[in-house]
Amino acid sequence: DMLTPDVMVDTSSPLLLCKGVEVWRGLSTVLKGVDLTVHEGEIVALVGPNGCGKSTLAETAAGMHMMRAGSVSHRQGKTLAVIRNHLGHRGLSGSFGLALQKDGASGDELVGERLQVAIDMCEETNYSPTTLQDEAEKWGLSHRLRDRIAWLSGGMARRVSVLAGLLPALISQTPRLVILDEPSSGIDREGIRILCEELTALKEKGHGVLVATHNQNVIDVATNTIEWVGEKLDSESVEYKVPSTKAPTELSARAKTFRTWANVLDYRTWGSVAA
């Protein structure tokens, strides 16, 4: 089922709410009873050893995994919306930034295309038209905007992925959620400096960031650090009520943007990325 929000909350509610989340991988329980919130002006760092569940939690917070228990909700304006729960319901999330540990980019995408789609999917109109060029310049990508991602080095491709994940918040005048999984991985010292600078600026503008990381520089700019103690996540319980939902009525502009992007790549590669 597809769901949309039907509960109004005040702006003190979180941008992200994970409540009682349990996720299995095969026969193994990776996450159990996890409560987590990200509020405006927060950078929440997930810290722990490899394989502890940081990436699984970040991906679950983005609505990507089936859950055995619990729910994940995102704030949309003044509305808290369930985007996925253990009953199998899927909701329509508002625009948020996402950079996975595995970039998930098609090598046939142009650098500028990927960044522009990240902007277009937000349906944001009140932003500077030079934002893309300015950010590409900051990240050392302005001379590669017409290149295919496959032509980039691993480090440069990672910069593209991370910047695409940050852009929804960078262009927004209202608080947005950003979810980053090991954004410093494969990026050089200068790239990490830029990343920390961007995260700090987003925090100061009221955006909220969930970041899974090993990097101490990223941890140092976080406002809250959540660590794994053995197999248990050291997070506090939350009291927010999980909102009710209702069915959507029309195809969103973001869905149309995605279809346009997929059609361009289908034509370029003579293969389907939309299957």
Q: Output the strand order for the largest sheet.
A: 8-9-10-4-11-12
Beta-strand content = 25-35%
Distance between the termini: 20 Å
Shape: globular
Uncertain stretches: 1-11
Name the average pLDDT: 85
Supply the helix-strand structural class: alpha/beta
Oligomer: single chain
Kindly state the number of beta strands: 13
* Topology as a string of helices (H) and strands (E): EEEEHEEEEHHHEHEHEEEH
Give the biggest beta sheet: 6 strands, mixed
What does this structure look like?
The chain has 275 residues and is of the alpha/beta class. The chain is built from 7 helices and 13 strands. It has a 6-stranded mixed sheet. A 4-stranded antiparallel sheet has the order 3-2-5-6, covered by helices on one side. A hairpin with a 2-residue loop joins strand 11 (224-229) and strand 12. Helix 2 runs parallel beside helix 4 (154-170) and helix 4 (154-170) packs parallel to helix 5 (189-204). The protein is globular, with a radius of gyration of 18 Å. The two termini are 20 Å apart. Mean pLDDT is 85; it is low at 1-11.
Record the SSE blueprint:
Elements lengths: L1 E4 L10 E10 L2 E11 L4 E5 L6 H8 L7 E8 L2 E7 L4 E2 L5 E3 L11 H10 L10 H8 L15 H17 L6 E5 L7 H16 L3 E5 L3 H6 L2 E6 L2 E2 L11 E2 L6 H17 L6
Parallel strand pairs: 1-7, 4-10, 4-11, 8-9, 9-10
Antiparallel strand pairs: 1-13, 2-3, 2-5, 5-6, 11-12
